[in-house]
Write a structure and sequence with these properties.
There is one protein chain. This protein has a single domain, classed as Nucleotidyltransferase, domain 5, CATH 3.30.420.240. Helices cover about 35% and strands about 30% of the residues. It is built from six helices and eleven strands. The chain has helices at about 65-80, 95-115, 150-160, 175-185, 205-210, 210-225; strands at about 1-15, 25-35, 45-55, 85-90, 120-130, 135, 145-150, 165, 185-190, 195-200, 240. An eight-stranded mixed beta sheet has the order 6-7-5-4-1-2-3-8, sandwiched between helices. Strands 10-9-11 form a three-stranded antiparallel beta sheet. A hairpin with a 7-residue loop joins strand 9 (about 185-190) and strand 10. The longest helix has 19 residues, at about 95-115. The protein is globular and about 40 Å long.
Length: about 240
Amino acid sequence: MQHNKHREAILGVDLGQSQHPTALALLLNIEQTISRHSWCDANDPVTKHWLLAHAEIVPLGTSYTEVARIITTRLATLRRLHPIVPVRTAVDATGLGAPAIEMIQQELVRHQASSRQSLGRLEGILFTAGTAVTTSKHNTLPIDIFHVPKLTLLNSLATAIENNLLQVPAKLPLAATLTLQLKSLEIHQREHASPTVRINRDGDTESIAHADLVMALAMATWRMSQLYPNGTKPSINGPGQIPLL
């Protein structure tokens, strides 16, 4: 018999701008025990994996106010399914992301006041260059903002894929889009400079234009890897392509 323990849920949110849409990726950290019985004991084999439970691309042009409502709705659904699982939402804080985070926080507080149900912790991730990861506070809210190089985020995703830590159900909507976006990302090494990430748009430009879904998932996997490190080394160090699912 299969027993699943949900250890943590993280929703990665890549906020859209005028040229690209917002994307959501919900990652569940699952500890799975296989037992011959309806109960578990210390000798039963245990495996751990991160399940992409939900993926969504919000229509281009959707306001941040509506995006905040969508995020709250998805988190409320998650909370109904998993009432006691710790939940975090990691939101893109780059550019207009900082004021958008305020809208999301207001919507989460409004939901909690009306339902008496917490939807977890809100955090921001600011995309940077270089190699250093630093932390700051939001200007007006008690929210942590992590300053993380984009390549570091993608490294966490590539490492999870290579170590079979990430599971994407074949029937998950947008699974094919995610694969296309992964194929589009290329790592380029410049002389005397840090590697950079580029998008190869030779394929389906509408679905891979900004790799939004990949970035939402990369934020979720990076944050999960910080909370649950698995001891593996980064897998992207120079020219190449992100490993495929």
